[in-house]
Design brief:
By secondary structure, the chain is α+β, with helices and mostly antiparallel strands. Helix content is 29%, strand content 34%. The chain has three helices and four strands. It has a four-stranded antiparallel sheet. Strand 3 and strand 4 form a beta hairpin. The protein is globular and about 35 Å long. The protein starts with a strand and ends with a strand.
Length: 93
């Protein structure tokens, strides 16, 4: 069964999400930005969500985590919770 590990940053608006993606792309630390900006409790852990399988997260999240490239920031990913930056840290089949 496919499993993945990911981290994310949850913010309230798309503009901030895009701004943070640019900072990460330019070398700023994902974990530190998660601690500073994420509205999710996982922010205190640098956005780490641990390991999970398909169907354990909201569909918008699953689409990114189980289909996109590992190790780079993806987003903005809009869900009912807000706007996410998602980085897949590992994925196994």
């Amino acid at each position: 069964m496919t499993k993945a590990s990911a981290r994310h940053i949850l913010v309230e608006n798309e503009d901030l999400c895009k701004e943070l993606i640019e900072k990460i792309t330019n070398g700023e630390d994902f974990s530190e930005l998660a601690k500073q900006h994420s509205k999710c409790p996982s922010g205190s852990r640098g956005g780490d969500l641990g390991e999970f399988g398909p169907g354990q997260m909201v569909p918008e999240f699953d689409t990114v985590v189980f289909n996109e490239a590992v190790g780079i920031p993806h987003g903005p990913v809009k869900t009912n919770f807000g706007f996410h930056i998602v980085e897949i840290t590992s994925r196994t089949e």
